Automatic annotation (TrEMBL):
Its cofactor is Zn(2+). The lineage of its organism: Bacteria, Bacillati, Actinomycetota, Actinomycetes, Streptosporangiales. InterPro entries: Beta-lactam_resp_regulator (IPR052173), Peptidase_M48 (IPR001915). This is Zn-dependent protease with chaperone function. Pfam families: Peptidase_M48 (PF01435). It comes from Nonomuraea jiangxiensis. Belongs to the peptidase M48 family.
Length: 301
């Protein structure tokens, strides 16, 4: 019973923490750290929520969640008789866990299919250009720049973007897209997209997904400005924002007009970095979240 209560308390703390974190003001100063915190909150909440129900369900076995589930799967009799509440908790816990796993797998499969179809389409409507080696050029008059993530990743720009951007601005945009590819931001977004599917009514989940989408753009901006002028990237963002850029295809990661001014401001007038003590504090919090929930799945308090 203590284990179930501890997991329920952890789930509540993660939910409240996520709600408060949606309004945090420091995240734009350290987007990669903020992404780690969001991932930690999401993983811990999922494990704690399902674990609280399952911990109560396997209480008749007198073991932790994982040993109790293994005993149940092997058909071992419990130390105490089952009652309706324990059976209901078992059904609810297993169903919730299955839903989270299924929506994650479904989101991954859908993304893979969308990228495979898009690669086939690109083979028909895009071409190589010696002026931008290693990049596929899309035959479209609107401005577009995006990447197709995966093992065979591709960076794509449109003919409209080539006409719109100067040489330096184009280099900045390509560095931004290359950052998405290198840091596998598609995998960062996948769990949040899956959670949004599982809980479409939750404003906190919706806000969290929006926050992470913006944070990965900021993280890609930070990586890109190592190789190009931040002002050139900022002017490229403004050009895309005012030119009516083409929407990024589903399942891809692209340079779009979402929250342009917030990104431009931090590129032109970067805020001071977070204090080292604050960074280590959030790293410690993330480690605690990622270890506490699995630990409570194994032990019996």
């Amino acid at each position: 019973m203590i284990t179930a209560a501890a997991l329920a308390a952890l789930a509540t703390a993660c939910a409240v923490g996520s709600w408060r974190f949606t309004t945090a003001r420091w995240t734009s100063r350290a987007p990669r750290l903020a992404i780690i915190v969001w991932q930690s909150l999401g993983v811990a909440w999922g494990l704690a929520t399902t674990g609280a129900m399952l911990a109560y369900a396997v209480q008749p076995y007198g073991t932790g969640v994982l040993p109790g589930l293994i005993a149940f799967a092997h058909g071992e009799p419990p130390l105490h008789a089952w009652d309706a509440l324990h059976v209901l908790a078992l059904i609810a816990g297993l169903t919730s866990l299955a839903v989270l796993v299924v929506v994650l797998l479904a989101a991954g499969v859908q993304a893979l299919r969308a990228r495979r179809r898009h690669r086939m389409l690109l083979a028909l409507i895009s071409h190589d250009d010696p002026g931008v080696p290693g990049v596929r050029v899309l035959a479209h008059p609107s401005a577009a720049a995006y990447c197709v993530p995966g093992l065979r990743s591709q960076v794509v720009v449109s003919e409209g973007a080539l006409k719109l951007l100067s040489e330096d601005e184009l280099a900045a945009v390509l560095a931004h897209e290359a950052a998405h590819v290198r840091e596998r931001h598609d995998l960062v977004l996948l769990p949040f997209a899956a959670l949004r599917r599982a809980l479409p009514w939750s404003k906190v989940v919706s806000d969290a997904q929006g926050q992470v989408e913006l944070l990965i753009e900021m993280a890609a901006d930070d990586r890109a400005r190592r190789y190009c002028s931040p002002r050139r990237l900022a002017t490229a963002l403004l050009r895309f924002g005012t030119a009516g850029a083409m929407p990024t295809p589903h399942g891809m990661l692209g340079l779009h007009a979402h929250n342009v001014m917030a990104r431009v401001d931090r590129l032109i007038k970067p805020a001071p970095e977070l204090a080292v003590s604050v960074r280590y504090g959030y790293i410690a919090l993330s480690v605690i979240l990622l270890t506490t929930a699995p630990y409570l799945w194994v032990i019996q308090l």
